[in-house]
Structures are given as C-alpha cells and as structure tokens.
Amino acid sequence: MSFKREGDDWSQLNVLKKRRVGDLLASYIPEDEALMLRDGRFACAICPHRPVLDTLAMLTAHRAGKKHLSSLQLFYGKKQPGKGMDQSPRQQNELRPSETKAEAPLLTQTRLTTQSALHRAPYYNSCCRRKYRPETPRPSVSHSPLPPPEVEPESGKITREPMPGVGPQAKEPATVSSSAPMSPTRRRVLDHYLTLRSSGWIPDGQGRWVKDENVEFDSDEEEPPDLPLD
Amino acid sequence: MFLYNLTLQRATGISFAIHGNFSGTKQQEIVVSRGKILELLRPDPNTGKVHTLLTVEVFGVIRSLMAFRLTGGTKDYIVVGSDSGRIVILEYQPSKNMFEKIHQETFGKSGCRRIVPGQFLAVDPKGRAVMISAIEKQKLVYILNRDAAARLTISSPLEAHKANTLVYHVVGVDVGFENPMFACLEMDYEEADNDPTGEAAANTQQTLTFYELDLGLNHVVRKYSEPLEEHGNFLITVPGGSDGPSGVLICSENYITYKNFGDQPDIRCPIPRRRNDLDDPERGMIFVCSATHKTKSMFFFLAQTEQGDIFKITLETDEDMVTEIRLKYFDTVPVAAAMCVLKTGFLFVASEFGNHYLYQIAHLGDDDEEPEFSSAMPLEEGDTFFFQPRPLKNLVLVDELDSLSPILFCQIADLANEDTPQLYVACGRGPRSSLRVLRHGLEVSEMAVSELPGNPNAVWTVRRHIEDEFDAYIIVSFVNATLVLSIGETVEEVTDSGFLGTTPTLSCSLLGDDALVQVYPDGIRHIRADKRVNEWKTPGKKTIVKCAVNQRQVVIALTGGELVYFEMDPVCYFIIHYVFTSLNGVLLRTVLDPVTGDLSDTRTRYLGSRPVKLFRVRMQGQEAVLAMSSRSWLSYSYQSRFHLTPLSYETLEFASGFASEQCPEGIVAISTNTLRILALEKLGAVFNQVAFPLQYTPRKFVIHPESNNLIIIETDHNAYTEATKAQRKQQMAEEMVEAAGEDERELAAEMAAAFLNENLPESIFGAPKAGNGQWASVIRVMNPIQGNTLDLVQLEQNEAAFSVAVCRFSNTGDDWYVLVGVAKDLILNPRSVAGGFVYTYKLVNNGEKLEFLHKTPVEEVPAAIAPFQGRVLIGVGKLLRVYDLGKKKLLRKCENKHIANYISGIQTIGHRVIVSDVQESFIWVRYKRNENQLIIFADDTYPRWVTTASLLDYDTVAGADKFGNICVVRLPPNTNDEVDEDPTGNKALWDRGLLNGASQKAEVIMNYHVGETVLSLQKTTLIPGGSESLVYTTLSGGIGILVPFTSHEDHDFFQHVEMHLRSEHPPLCGRDHLSFRSYYFPVKNVIDGDLCEQFNSMEPNKQKNVSEELDRTPPEVSKKLEDIRTRYAF
C-alpha cells in the first residue's frame, strides 16, 4: 500500500496544501486558549460553555466566530483585570509587526507566522519546563487555608480554568513568580493542599473538605489531616 | 539511535537431540538444536565429559532434526526441517570444524505455517528416503541416493498430500530393504468440519496411516490406514528386516500399543503408574520421549513418562510375530525433551527445563528384583500396573551441562560489592527451579589442594620423554629449596629425580627427547634419561637472574649484564604464531610473522592492577595462555573465536600446564602456601554460576535496597502447597488402612507409616500434579550472596502470586513494605478468576523478615505493582489504580479504566506512568495530583504483546514481546502531557470504545527479532568503566545485549559487514537473515552482531573478499568485531 498521491488533479492538491498550511498555522494557538483532550479533540478554553471541537481546523473556524471573539474579550478582561488593555499573546503578536513596519503588514505577518509554525525547537518538554506568568498581587485569603488549586510544583503550567465549586479566591490564576521564590510556609501549604487532593479530599467551596465518594479512606478518617507543623 | 546486537551467552535449552557418527569416525556425536542454534556435542567415552565441538546460529527456527545414513555408509548426515520452506541436508566436516550444506531444496513459503512442511521429519532406517511433513495436509518424500562419485543426491519431491488431515507424528518404518514405508499419526477432520451438529467431531478418530514409497514406480501411495482406539501422541519405530519384527509402537494416553501389517494382532500394554501417587488418579499418563538402543543381537527402547520415570521396553517375538510387550521400571531422571542412547553405554538426557545430563548405563536392569510388567498379564480394562519409584540404580550420572533455560526474570546489580555487577537470574520450572548468580568468568574445578611447607615462588611440570602423554614431575621452587613431586596415581615427593633440591629453581624443562634441564641461580643442570648429570656452573660470583628455555635452547642472563646461549643439536625451527607481552597489567597480543619477524595486529586488554605473568598451557588440544595479574585470565581459541576470560578463582601466583591420567588438561598453580591442581572444563562459557534451589517456578523478584536481600515470588500451576500435600498424604494413608481387611490391618498400618515417611526429592521425581486451576505459591526472602532463605511465607492453596514490589509510603516514614499481588482461583483456560488480593508485609529485622500487615481484596489479578510518589500503582486486571497504605487495607485513591486488556507491567518516571498492556503495547499515563486523576495522553501504534519493559530515558521505553521481538519506542519531542478529560461531561458517550486510542502516538526507534521470548530487559553497565548497554535474557536461557554505536563510521562499517555476510555467508538452514530478523516487524536500526561475528568462521578466501570490499584486511575486521564486544561486555 502506498500513501503516495496519485493523479495530477491540481485543484485537489491545492485544497490539500491549503489544509496543510491551515493545520500548521492553526497550531499556533496559545496553549491556554484551548485544551487538548485525551481523545485528541480540542475544547475552547475561552468560551464559557467549553465547546468541544473534533479537529484543529474546526477549532480555528470556531476561533474566528463572533461568539468566540466576544468571549475572548470577556475572558481577557476577566483574566487580567489589573492590566486593562492587555491582549492575548496572539493579538500581541499580530500587533507587533504592524507597529514596526506598516508597508507590507500582511507579508510580515505571514512570514512571522510561518516562521513560528515551522519553528521546531525548542520543543515542549514537560519534564524541565517552567513557565511563569508575571506576578499579580494575590488577594488576601480570608477564611480558608486553601491555596489556588492550579499550582503544580513540578510543572507549574496552567491551562485550565479552576474546577466549578472551588472558592472564589481560587479563581485567581497561579501567581508564582520566577523572580520571587516561594516561601517555605507557602510551599508547605501548597504541598498539603496537593496531598489532600491526591488522597481524595475535595474542597466544597465553603472552606471545608469533603470526601470523594470514589476514593477509599480508613474507617476512622473523618477529617482531613491538618497542615503538618515543622 | 543505532544499536548492535551481541549474544553473551547462547540459549541453553534443547529442543531436539539426535546422535550418530557425524564426523565419520567410530566416535558417536550428538547434534542438538537449541531453537535457532545447531550444536555438535561429543561425549568423551573415557572421561564422560561432554565437549561442545561446534555451535552455529542458523537464523531460523529449527522445527525438526533427523540423522540419516546412506545404506552401507559410515557417516551420518543431518536433515533439518525449519521455517525456511526448505529442506536442508548438512554434513559435518571435521577438518574444518563446520557444517556444510550439501542440499537445500525449496518447497514452500517461509514461516511456521500450517500447510508448509517442516514440522515433522522421518527417515527410512535404511537411509533411502526422507519424509518431511507439515502439521496439516502436505507431506513430501525425497529419495536419497549416491551418484557415481559417491556423493549424496536428492530427488525432486514426491507428494503424499491429503487435504483436511492433521498430522501428529511421522516415523520411518523399518522394513528392511523392501519399499520404504512411513507411518503417520493422522486425523481427518473433513467430516467433523462439515457436520454442524458436532456429532462427527465427537466421533472423529485418530488414524495410523502407512505411506509407501514405491521405488520402482517412483511414487508414494497411501498404503493402509487404521483408526486408533486411543489418541496417540507419538510413534516409535521397531527394528525390522533382519534385526527385528518391524512395525511401530504407538504411545498414547495410558497405553502403549504395538502394530504391524499382516496377521500381527495388536499388542497393548498399560503404562504403569507410581504406587501411592499424590497425583489425581483420573489423570492420564503418557510417554513424552523415547530412545532406541539396537545392537546386532538385541534391541530395546527406553521411554520416559511425563513424571520422569524411564521404562525399558522389550518385545517378545515368536517367529517374527510379536507376542508380548514387556515394561520394566528403569530409573527416574528429569523430564526430557529428547534422549539418546550411545553405543558407548551413555544416556544423554536433554532436559525439558534446567540442566542436561549425561548418564552412564551401568546395568541394563536385567537381573534385579524390579517387577517386569507384560501385556500378557491379565488386567481389567482401565486397570494398570503399579511400581515404586526409587533413586538411580541402573544409571550413573557422569556429566551435567548447565542450562539456565527457562530464564523467568533477571536483575543485574553489584549486590556482592565486587565492582563487576552480577546477574541474578531466576530460572527453572517447578521443583527444579533455582536462583543463579552469574559472574563473568570461567568456572574452575579444583582437582586437588595441598599445603606446602612454605610459600613457593614458582612451579613447573615436565615430561620424562617428548612422546609421553602425561607429565612426570611437578617442580616447586621455594626461596632456598626446590621440591620435586612425581605424578602417578598420587602425587608424592621424590628425591631421585636428579634435580638439585637445595637451591631455588629459575626454570626447568624437557631438553631434547628425553633429558631434563634445571636452571638455578648458580648454574644449569642437565639430567639425562639414565639420571647422569651434567652441570654448568656460573663463572666467578655471577648468578643467573633470568632465563629462557625451550626444548633445544637455553638462554641465561647473568648479573653484570651478560647473556649466555646454549643449544643442543642444530636448532630446528620453531614457529610462534602469537607473541604475548605484558606491561603493567596490560596484555598485548600480537601476530609474529615467521618470515619477516614483523609484529602486526596488536590487541591489548587491561587485566588487573599487578604486572602480568604469562604461562603456556594446553586447552582442548590447543595452545592457550594463562595470564596472571590481580586476577587470572585464560586466553584461548574456541570455535574460531579468541576468548579472553577471567577465571572465577582466587588470585594465583604462578602456574604451569599439567597432564595426568586423571586430569589430561589441567593446570598446576600456586597460591600463598598451597599447591593446587585445577581443571577448566567449561571452555566457551562466559559466565560461571552459583545456583540456589527454589521450591516453585520463580516469577519475579525485587531487591530491598537497604539490605540487598531479594524478595522472590514463586508460583506454580498444577501444584499443591506443602500443607495440601501433607493433608492429602495423611488422607491417603488413612484410606489405605481403612481399605484393608481385619487381618491385614496391621500390615496396612505399617505400609501407611512407610508411605508417610517416604520422601522422594521433588527435584528429581517431580512434584505431584494437582490438576487444572490448582496453584501453589511462596514468598521468599533470600540473601543473594550466601543463598540462604531468611524468611518464607507459604500462601494458601490456589493463591497465585503474580507481582511483587518493595516500597515506602510517604505517610509512614522510613519503614519498608513488601506488596505481593495474588490471584485467587485462577483458571487459565477458559479464563476465570475469583478475584485477587494484595498482601502487605512490613519488612522488619533489617529486611530479613516479613511481618504480615493486611490483605486487600481486589476484583481481578493484580499483575503489576510499582511504587509511585510515596504510594503504589497497581494494575488490577485492566484497571490502573493508585493505592495508599491504610490501617486495615490498602486504600484505593484513584483509578483509570481505559487500559485495553490487562496490565502486565508498570514503569514510572516523574509524573509519567508507562503501562504495558498484555496485548496493546505501551500506554503513557499522566497522574494529575491536583485533580487526583490518571489520564492517558499517548500510546503506541503497534499491537505488541509486551512481556517486559525498561525505561531508557524520560521519553523512551524499550520493550520486549512474547514473540521474541525487542523494540524501542519514543514519544515525539512535542508530546503534550497536559491533556484533559473532556469537560463537557458527555465522555461516557464518546470515550466508551476500546478503539479510542490516545491522540498522541509514540514513534518506533528500533525493532529487532531476537527469535526467543525475552522476559527481562535492563539498562546497565556490565564491566566496570564500560558503557551502558541494554541487557536482555530469553526464555531459552540466552543472554544478549544491545549496544549503541558511538560513531557513524562504526555504524557504517558494521552495516557493510552485515550486508556482505548476508550475501557471502547465508544462514545454514536456508532462512533469509533479513527476513528472520524482520519476522514480526521490519528490523530497524539494529545490526546483528551474531551474524557479523560469523565472519571469523568463514573460509579464509571469503574473509579476504569481504574485507577487501570493506578496504581492510581480515585481521582488522576481526579486531573491530572484538573491540566492540570488549568495550561493552566480554
């Protein structure tokens, strides 16, 4: 069996070419604006209703839609309230060339996009990667010892909205700065949070922990263990 | 990544063994097949040792093997049936020490297929024809003859096909010089296939069919076919013509039946059973293998049952009519795959599992009290004879050939703190299993050790006459004296040898034909055969400091820098092929050109920290060099390859060759104040092994990192636990007493007591077979250095341990725990399981004792356990779960249900978990602590039936499958771990299908077909300071490595060597090398070192051609081959 294309149907070839380029360009979607699902489909992380799309092409089509664009505004408005004017990385990218050179904006833009589309290194490697966002002031924690749930010490990479039902303060994105290392207390709190989560405790949103019904516990284990003191 | 495959130790299990005069002399040899290896063994009739003469890898699956001899010939040929779709006839050439392919006839497609012949071979006992048969339908007969130059000829094939017929066994019937006849166990399934009610299938009978080759018509006819009452499993030819009654013996369940043409009635005799056997009495008994012994006056058969009992079968005849079959219990030996009775009175037993044995037949069992069973004895239908198994009486064990087969598991670590890591190998099956510790080195057998009055400096042996076979004296030199020992029946001190005893000796040797010379610091003494002594004294105060002596010349170096040269008659010239030199612990081997005196092809090896001393010794009739540094090494040539192997022995100081009647090729050596006589018998072996026996088949073991103790799980199917065995024995004893009448009560009680006290070692007599679905297991803690069992936990009957892990839990501090995954009431076919348990033990007493903590019930078989971030991952059937240690059981914390079939292994690195599925290759899973979820993010594209896996780096996994392939797969660099579950919540609808693989796929880096099922893989270094390699062990007992190429030049070179060898030196059994290595997946990025190393056994002109193509000389090529081996291993 051969996968070599047969025939000389140029229009078909052009369609394929276009799709290929589309695929390449479409992959330039900021990581936090889409979720990759384990079955290979994509969910839009911008739209609040999380539409699931089968292919990259469909995601791209969706991203060009009106609904998405309005959610995009809403999303970035909400995501970084302090910065007001901030745009998505893609918008920034699109903006930059037009600022520098106005004669052939389309050409510059295309060149830039193709460059980044064909740029194969540095590759993603979850093992050593640490990508932090700029620090934003963290609102004070009022009544719960819960840290934001999204922090994973190993990866530090966040692509998700917090789970529904998590307290409002958890809506804040991770705020660990690479410049300021985590304080030991904070690290301990974080560790404790992850230990509790991974042993099957779920925060109920009111600052209390409830048992996950799919997880087994010792019969005398009623309350989650307290934060260890050292 | 390009890899080079090297075999460190070839497979040791034997699948077939045949015997005959392959070298054409009177001496009988044995040819064995070890799967893809053909080997020629020669048992030495004097010493009883089995020597390997030749080993050839054939790069194909040997499916049948037969010896045949043309009528009137004296030399046996070898017929090989393989997966090549060809019949191959080989002849052993003793002068070149190689198998020569005489004929190779293609008849079908390659591969092990149903209707392509190769599975069965039968030869006409008179050597006129050979039949090669497939499992189904096809049979071909080739006529063998001689041409005018007495060369063997082979005809075109004659077909004896019959469609819809399965074949169970084929033999050549001995009909003397009538038309050749073949007997076949067949089953015609045509009717059964066409009958949808299944009635025909239930009534289908096996038939015994005779095929006759009509030599006049050049045609094969299906002569006669007869349905059989019992289902036969194999046939034995009965000698015919002038030697016996002809016909065949059919071995079937519980019976052995004699059949022949004409008026001969069938004679049927039940197979005797062991008295008071713990086996299920309903279970049938079959013979599994047989050997025929035939002399001019008599013949008999030895047939072995599946319990290992050998029966001697004789036939009573009355004018060419067989009247009676007689069976007599002979002895019990381990169950064999093949047996050979040699003319010299040896019985070679190629064991099914474990070591192979050579026995001497001391008695034929004719005149003893052992009862003889006969077909003429009246017995009810279904009744049988009973006998009492006993230790060996007729056989005497003379040699044992080590076999690791089957290797179930292996770990490589330096647990003994010896710098060089040891291989800990779990091997064997049932009660014959063992844990073996393999160390690189040659095994040394100590023949004698004697203390001396002081610490000697040197030792020599001398013969009395140049034509003497054996040495006469051992000369031991001390600081101020010389001791002379004479070699006879014993070794004794003598004073009348003529040697000067009051001075140290520098050297001594045989001079001329029958004189001796002794060089000592003050002079040289020449001792003639008649004990007259000539002496030469050093002039003045000078003394001799160094000397060199051979049979005609003596050179001495005096103090003051003077050299004196002595010679006998005109010097006859003397060729040294190799010059060995040593420098600061490094051995140099170089070729000396006898004409020009040039030194070339120098090869160096580092031997140890002390300066190297070299000694010339003889090994298997060839020159060898013993090199002594901090370790002793032997450099020898074995099967056209140079070996330099360390001796697994303490440090020696001086040595010399030694030949006596008891020990024809020994070494006499000194170590501190002892004189030792040593023998090196296992030349060619890379590893020496120490074996510690185990109770059941070892499945896996783990190493406790703090104490280095091993925790081994041993599990056997079809076995009783000790408790059940004792209980059954008690029950049988009680029944015995109850069954007896009033007056026999006392006798019965005595018999019952004797039965209870009887203790036959299971390693020889086998363990009782408990029946399908009966399991027995133990968990053993063992010290791997001493081999002593520190703790032993017996599991209950029908609990089968499948997985083990040693780990720490983050919520319990520094305590170590052992987790054992156990299946309950597992039935293999049709598969059913009542559930499983995970036993949790705490390791106490510095890792020496197991303290039972709790037992966690699970739904399926927990076949894989791996520690993971302070908790454990357990594969329960197809469920992947995270468990934490609880107070009363393990607590399930997280679960993934999306693995396809059955989790056979778990590897972890960071947050990644790599799960091997029994059928669907690898699945990469990510644990998300934050959400307490295990999410599949990548998998493989090929269906691999993974047996074992090993991580090579963060993205790369090496795995092996049950079909004998090794692969390396890697996640592409842009793989994203951060995949999410579908947030829309309708995943139940979409994610249900099993075909719903992960979206990201691994890439294949390398594929290679080893040809033997690989059960362990480990990335490790084998020699201190060496580079890392991937070590694998196979079910057949082989050990091999895959090593990476470090330069493109090397890779290029070896690729060309491989390419040339493929065309210049095609595999022996006719299988194409490339297609063999690509049996299941196209071979990728691996160069076969085993093929490349066959360069050394090619004929010199071909070697020259190949090396010219590579722009090198043959020594350069073989040096490169040696270099890559020594860089990584031995």
UniProtKB/TrEMBL annotation, chain A:
InterPro entries: SCNM1, SCNM1_acidic, Znf-SCNM1. Keywords: Ion channel, Ion transport, Metal-binding, mRNA processing, mRNA splicing, Nucleus, Spliceosome, Transport, Zinc, Zinc-finger. Residues 183-228 form the Sodium channel modifier 1 acidic C-terminal domain. Pfam families: SCNM1_acidic, zf-SCNM1. GO terms for cellular component: nuclear speck; spliceosomal complex. One of its GO terms (molecular function) is zinc ion binding. Residues 215-230 have a biased composition (Acidic residues). Residues 78-115, 130-186, 199-230 are annotated as: Disordered. Residues 44-69 form the Sodium channel modifier 1 zinc-finger domain. It is found in: Nucleus speckle; Nucleus, Nucleoplasm. Its main location: nucleus. This is Sodium channel modifier 1. It comes from Leptonychotes weddellii (Weddell seal). The gene is SCNM1.
UniProtKB/TrEMBL annotation, chain B:
Its main location: nucleus. Residues 776-1096 form the RSE1/DDB1/CPSF1 C-terminal domain. Residues 14-401 form the RSE1/DDB1/CPSF1 first beta-propeller domain. GO terms for molecular function: nucleic acid binding. Keywords: mRNA processing, mRNA splicing, Nucleus, Spliceosome. It is found in: Nucleus. Residues 445-570, 578-679 form the RSE1/DDB1/CPSF1 second beta-propeller domain. It holds the Pfam family Beta-prop_RSE1_2nd. GO terms for cellular component: spliceosomal complex. It comes from the Eukaryota. Gene3D superfamilies: 1.10.150.910, YVTN repeat-like/Quinoprotein amine dehydrogenase. GO terms for biological process: mRNA processing; RNA splicing. Component of the 17S U2 SnRNP complex, a ribonucleoprotein complex that contains small nuclear RNA (snRNA) U2 and a number of specific proteins. Part of the SF3B subcomplex of the 17S U2 SnRNP complex. SF3B associates with the splicing subcomplex SF3A and a 12S RNA unit to form the U2 small nuclear ribonucleoproteins complex (U2 snRNP). Within the SF3B subcomplex, interacts directly with SF3B1 (via HEAT domain), SF3B5 and PHF5A. Identified in the spliceosome A complex; remains associated with the spliceosome throughout the splicing process. Component of the spliceosome B complex. Component of the 17S U2 SnRNP complex of the spliceosome, a large ribonucleoprotein complex that removes introns from transcribed pre-mRNAs. The 17S U2 SnRNP complex (1) directly participates in early spliceosome assembly and (2) mediates recognition of the intron branch site during pre-mRNA splicing by promoting the selection of the pre-mRNA branch-site adenosine, the nucleophile for the first step of splicing. Belongs to the RSE1 family. This is Splicing factor 3B subunit 3. It comes from Leptonychotes weddellii (Weddell seal).
